[in-house]
Amino acid sequence: MIVGAGFAGFECARTLSRLARGAAEIVLLNPHDYFLYVPLLPEVAAGILEPRRIAVSLTRNLPGTRLVLGQAHDVDLDARQVRYTDPEGEKGALPYDRLVLTVGSVNKLLPVPGVAEHAHGFRGMPEALYLRDHVTRQIELAGASEDPAERSARTTFVVVGAGYTGTEVAAHGVLFSAGLARQNAGLKDGPRPRWLLLDVADRLLPGLDERLSHTADRVLRSRGVDVRTRTSVKEATADGVLLDDGEFIHSRSLIWCVGVRPDPLVDSLGLPTDKGRLCVDKFLGVPGRPEVFACGDAAAVPDLTRPGEVTPMTAQHAQRQGKVAAHNVAASCGRGSPRAYQHHDLGFMVDLGGSQAAANPLHLPISGPLAAAVTRGYHLMAMPGNRVRVAADWFLDAVLPRSGVQLGLLNSWSVPLDTEAPELPRLPGGETART
Ligand SMILES: Cc1cc2nc3c(=O)[nH]c(=O)nc-3n(C[C@H](O)[C@H](O)[C@H](O)COP(=O)(O)OP(=O)(O)OC[C@H]3O[C@@H](n4cnc5c(N)ncnc54)[C@H](O)[C@@H]3O)c2cc1C
C-alpha cells in the first residue's frame, strides 16, 4: 500500500506494478484522483496553463494499481492498518503487508503576527487557482477605483521567500499582472503593477548555484520587481505588510513561499524524525519496521553523495526514491535484491516566464531563451502524461493574449495558509472538502 500519489508515490506505484506483473495487489491512497505536476503550478497561477494540464489521471496512468480516494489520518503500525477519510466523509481502513509513505509536504509557517490570517501559501492546486483569480480581481478592482491609494494597494503584490517557488511566482506574476493592466481601460495609462520579492537571505534562490541567483536577480529587476534581500515581514494586516526595517507596504496580496514542512501525518506516527521528516535508512526502510518504507519530501533519506546530510526536498529526488522504494518492496517480497538510494544532483531549472529561465543542467549554467527551452523540454519529458496538452497551451500562450477572467470559485478562506491538506479547498465551517 502506498500513501500519497505525488512524485514519489506515483513512481513507486508505476515501478511496482511493472515488477509485480500482477502478482501483488497495489493500493494507492490519495485525496484526489490525479498526480499533480507541482513544478508547473506557477504557470497555472499565471494563466499560461489550464489546471487540468498538470493534473495527470492516476487511474489512466496506473492501470495495475487500485486507487482509493482518501486522506490518511492514522497509521496503526502494529495492526498494519491505515485509517482514512474519503472525499464524502466516510471513514475506512486499509490493511497492508508493505507500506510506503510518500505524503509529501505542506506550507511552512513562521510565528509572524497576522500571517496565518492574511497570507496564502503556494503548494497545491486550490492555491494556484485562487492566486490567478485574486490577481485578476485586484487588477479589475484597481481599474474601477477612483481612489489612488486603493489603486496602488490593489496593484502591489508581496511575495515572501525567494526560493524557487517564490522566485517563479514573482517572475510569472509580474508579467501576468502587467498584461492584465494593459487590457484594463482604467489602468493602461497608470503605473505598472508592483511586485516585491522578499527574503531574509542575502540572495535570491538561496541554496542553489549562485549563478542561477544572478540570472534570476537580473531578470526580475529588469521587469521592475522590487527584490529585497535581508528583509523579512514583522506583521501582516488586512491593509498591507510591515517589514522588519519599519516600512509599511500597502497591499492586498501576501503570497507566502517561505518553504515547506513534512506532512503532519509523519509526526503522528511516533517514529524518529529529522526536522520533521521520517528517518529511513539508505534502503528507504524505517528502522525496526521492515515492512514500512518512506521517501520523498516526507522522509529524511541519507544522501550518500554528501555524507552526513539528507537529500533535499525536490521532485528530482522524490521521483527517483519512489522507484528505488518499489525495488526494495519487491526485494522484501523475494523479487530481486535491495538497492541503496544514491543520486548525484543533476542541477536545477527555474522557469522565469516569458522566454527566460535560469538553469544549470548537469551543472552547466545557462540563461535566456536557451534555458527556457531546456526547462520546458525537461518538464515535458518529466511529466507522466498530458504532454501534448501542455505543449498546446504553451503554443497558444505564445500567439494569443492570455485569458483575463476570474471564475471566483475559491474564496480567501477556502485556501488557508495553515492547512494539513493544501491540495483540498476548505468548505464553509472550516472543514476540508474531504470531511
Ligand atoms: C511551486 C513549486 C515548484 C516546484 N518546482 C520544483 C522543480 O522545478 N524541481 C524540483 O525538483 N522540485 C520542485 N518542487 C518541489 C517538488 O514539487 C517536491 O519536492 C515534490 O513534489 C515532492 O514529492 P513527494 O512525492 O514527496 O510529495 P508530493 O509531490 O507533494 O505528493 C504528496 C502526495 O501525498 C498526498 N497526501 C498528503 N497527505 C496525505 C495523506 N494524509 N493521506 C493520503 N495522501 C496524502 C498529497 O495529496 C500528494 O498527492 C516545487 C515545489 C513547489 C511547491
TrEMBL record:
Keyword Oxidoreductase: yes
Family annotation (Gene3D superfamilies): 3.50.50.100
Family matches, as InterPro entries: FAD/NAD-bd_sf, FAD/NAD-binding_dom, NDH-2
Entry's Gene Ontology molecular function annotations: oxidoreductase activity
Catalytic class of the enzyme: oxidoreductase
FAD/NAD(P)-binding domain mapped to chain residues: 1-322
Entry superkingdom: Bacteria
EC assignment: 1.6.5.-
Pfam families: Pyr_redox_2 (PF07992)
Keywords, comma-separated and alphabetical: FAD, Flavoprotein, NAD, Oxidoreductase
Family: Belongs to the NADH dehydrogenase family.
Protein name: NAD(P)/FAD-dependent oxidoreductase
Naturally occurring in which organism (per UniProt): Streptomyces mooreae
